[in-house]
Structure formats: C-alpha cells, structure tokens
Amino acid sequence: MTDTILDRRDLRFQLFEVLDTDTLLTRPRFAEHSRETIDAALDTAEKLAREKFANHNALADKEEPVFVDGKVVMRPEVQEAFDAYIEAGFLTARAAFEEGGMQLPETAAAACTGMFTCVNPSSTVYPFLAGAAGNVLRNFASETLKTQFLEPMMAGRFTGTMALTEPHAGSSLADIRTRAIPRGDGSYRIKGNKIFISAGENELGENIVHLVLAKIPGGPEGVKGISLFVVPKYRLDAQGQPAERNDVILAGLIHKMGYRGASSTALTFGDNDDCHGYLVGEEHQGLRYMFQMMNEARIAVGYGAALLGYRGYRFSLDYARDRTQGRHAENADFSQPMVPIIEHADIRRLLLTQKAYAEAALAMCFYGYRLVDEMETGEKQQAEDAELLLDLLTPVIKTWPSEFGVKANDMAIQVFGGAGYTREYPVEQVWRDNRLNPIHEGTTGIHGLDLLGRKVWQSGGRGMQLLAGRIMSDVAATSDSRCRPFADALQVMLPKVEAATAAAGKVMAAKGPTAGLSNANAYLQLVGHVVAAWMWLRQANAAVQLGGEDTDFANGKLQAARYFFQWELPRVEVDVQRLLDNDSTFLDMKDHWF
Length: 594
Prior knowledge:
- The protein is built from 19 helices and 12 strands.
- The chain is an alpha+beta fold.
- It folds into 4 domains: 8-119, Butyryl-Coa Dehydrogenase, subunit A, domain 1, CATH 1.10.540; 158-284, Butyryl-CoA Dehydrogenase, subunit A, domain 2 (Beta Barrel); 286-328 and 337-442, Butyryl-CoA Dehydrogenase, subunit A, domain 3, CATH 1.20.140.10; 445-585.
- The strands form 3 sheets. Strands 3, 4, 5, 6, 7, 10, 11 and 12 form an 8-stranded mixed sheet that branches. A two-stranded antiparallel sheet has the order 1-2.
- The longest helix has 37 residues, at 286-322.
C-alpha cells in the first residue's frame, strides 16, 4: 500500500481560505514571505518527509531502540532523518532570521512540520523536543545558559527533553521529590528519579539537555516550590564542548504500545551525588517557565493526534476505493462483479465520520497556531485577546483531537475489516501510535478539571466571552443558504454552554470543587464539540466560495459539515443536561461496590 501524507489542497484551504494567512504576510515580521515562499517550504518538507521519514516508520516500530553497551541504539534511518531535518532548517523554521531561522508564521511552520509527524511521529519527537526546550531557554534562561546550551540546540548539536514525571507522583507535580541542593558556585546538585522521559537517552547529538523540575530545600510546599534546571548529559568544558559525563543514569527503556521508534526512558539523577544542574531564571518559578513548553507540547499533541486521525482516514479511503466486496442490496445477480466497498452506505458512514473528526481537529489546531501568531505580531489588544483565548482553548485543542483522532483510527481499522487488525496493513500502527495522545501531556480527565476548574473563570470569564464572540461573529457572517442551518445550530447551542457553565460554577460555590468538577469530562466534551462544530462552520463558509475544479473538494467539506451538525453536535445535549442536573452518578459510586 502506498504511503499517505497531508493533502496539499487541504493545507492550502486551511492556511489561506479558512485562516486567511495572507493577512499575516503583511505584518513586518513576515513581510519577506509570500504564498510562494510558504509553498516552497512545504515542497521541501513534503519531499523530505517522504524520503527520510516515511521510509522507516514501520521499521522503527518493529525494531525499537535498545540499550547496548551503555548506549541507546536505534535504526540508522532515525539519525539520517534527524540530520536532514536540521540541515533543511525546520528546527528553526519559526526562529528569527538573525538567529538563522526561516521566520515563518507559526501556522505555516506547523503545516511544514505536520508533514513529518503525519508519516513518522516517533522520529519527529527528537527535533520537536529540542526546539521546544530551546524555546524555554530563549525566554527564561540567563545569557550564559543560552550561549552554553541554546545555541548548540538550535544548531542541532544538542537534543532536549522535558523531565517532569516521577514514578510515585505521575501527573501530580506538586508531589515531586527530586531535589536541587545549591553549591554556592551557582550550580546545584540534582537528586531524584524521572519516568516516561521521551528522547531521554539517544546518540543523535553530542549532548542531551534535560529540563528538570526539582525542589530546592526550604522552598514553598507544592507547585509553588518547584524550580527548573538545565541538567546536561555531559558537562561542558571551558570551551563549551561536551566533556565529563554528568551523573545522569539511564535506569531503563520503557516499551510502549505505540510510538515505539522514540526512546522512552526512566532516568536517575544523582545516584553518585554528582549530578550538576543549573537554575533557569529564578528559584521557585520552574512550573511557570515549564508551562510554556508544556503548553507548546499540548498543542503539538493535539496536532499529532489530528494528523494521525487524518492519516488513518486517508489510508482507509484508498482501501475502500480499491477493495471489492459484495454487491448492491438490490443486485441478486452473482455473476456480476463485486463493487468497491466505498459503494456501501455503512463504509461511507465510517469514512465520513473520520473525515469530520480529522478535518475538524486539523482546523482546531491550525486555529491555535494562528492565535500564537496573533500573540507575537498582533496589536496590543489583539495580542492580549489571542493569549487569553489560546489559554482557554489549550485543554480543548489537546484533548478533542486526541479523543476523536483515536476514534477515527478505530473506524479506519473497521473499514479494512480483518486486514486492518493485522500488521501487514498500516492502520493498526497508526491506532497504536495515536492511543498515547489522550494520555501524555495531561490525561483527558486532567484537562477537563483544568478547563472547568480554572480556565473558564480566569479574567472574570473573559476567555469564554471572547470565544462566544468569535463564534457569533462567524454565525453573523454566514449568508449562504447551505451554511445557515449550521450557523443557526451553533447559535442555539451557545446559551446552553453558558447555562451549563453557570450551573457547574454554582455547584462549586455551594458544595466545593469535588462535587462541582465531578462532571468535568462532560463539560470538556461539550465545549470541545461546540468548538469542532465552529471549525466546521468556518470551513463550510470558506468552501462555498470555491468553484471550478474545487467543486468536489468544496462539496466534501459541506457534506462533512452537514454530518457533524446533524449527527455529532446533538450528542452533547445529554452533557448539557448532566451539568444542569449536577448528576452525581460517579460521586455516589462507592469503592467497595466495584
């Protein structure tokens, strides 16, 4: 079966028809770019993704990294892909020209990197983490640390990680036990254990820069006492070159169901009391700094889930067009040839549902990336609004694509039938890779608590007001009769979201957060589905402007929108009612009843 990658027509649609990226190109930061330069970057990304990343996705899944003679050994194609990615400049695609970057808008850079994630999410982990860790240092580290670590990271010489999770604490960062003891010379000695550290050990670069969360003795309790440290695999000599091995030990490789090509590690810091770490920024501000990387990673997780949902959909679409089986129900003449399974209504159901999930998820993620561009280049109020709205939407952008990307992949397997459950076809790996996304960078349940427990109430609820305002702006701008039913349905749903939000707030005020947040997952699904529906309204409004050779493309968008509004959006009515009723089914269940 031939490989599949992001459709360039759909990318142009998302970037230019839906997001109107042309308006970004009039701003000073992006003025040297045009559709032509963005297309050229996409051409390079697509070629590189096909030649250097797609070629070993299945191979790296079968032959996981192994620990041999003190080193992690992986397939040589991973190194070739990493080097080619660096050489082509995609690690610094967003960085300023003066830093050697392409200075692309976030939306365009994401479209490029999406090519790599789509065909090989495991190998893409390594440059992503290096870039994201570098962004933290760029914004919060001292000039000395930037010179020592950021510059070689941006050159691709050093890789990076985020070392947060500990075996006993999981997602509860307030309970981490890793300690940082000041030595009086500006350095600290780090001691503790971290687990599930992606890319925590590899030989792709000359050094690995671990960004480690730890607590300095005597600091505040809980998350307020967390600080952030650079902990390199190798300490640097006077010339800034990797020299003596730091006291960071690989305790073991973790064998995952998916994402097998990316090393996942358990690391021990300071077993010999000689693990040197260097404070980033100020003491006890580590979680605030790390949230930048965590939020960048959360949006990337949602984007990766959307891409894998899309990839599985495209695989199953190709298969459904080629695979013949059965005949139309009214045809009893068995001498007639069998028909492609795409002729059967239930297969079209599975395909249309996948399309609706995957393309809404992509649109949602691109909207998030556009908000990043607004934060960085918009006028003051525009930038502040974008920051507040992105903060509100980050739990949704992370979780909705993660949950429904996996559901799309499940349907892709169903289209393949028994073949989809075998390793000879690609969709079983796509499903396994995607199944991680509802878990890492915060489980769906945690993001539900974050959304309902914190995000919706920030700034006096202004984020929700901004969201409602932007949705209603698109509702008001909808004039085509084919799209008006979608706009009307959203307009009806918004007051219900507002009522559900108010009801949950009243319960929290009267009974406390345990009761008020017991249905946070239902709230997250409600808001997520409404945002996904909004993405379909935006796509439908853009699609009706197309014509000519784009007619089939536009009709596909409109039919997917129709499906979402007629089949999917009504599903959340039950979530609204649960929140209005303060349903206590889960709270009332007792441990010993299980």
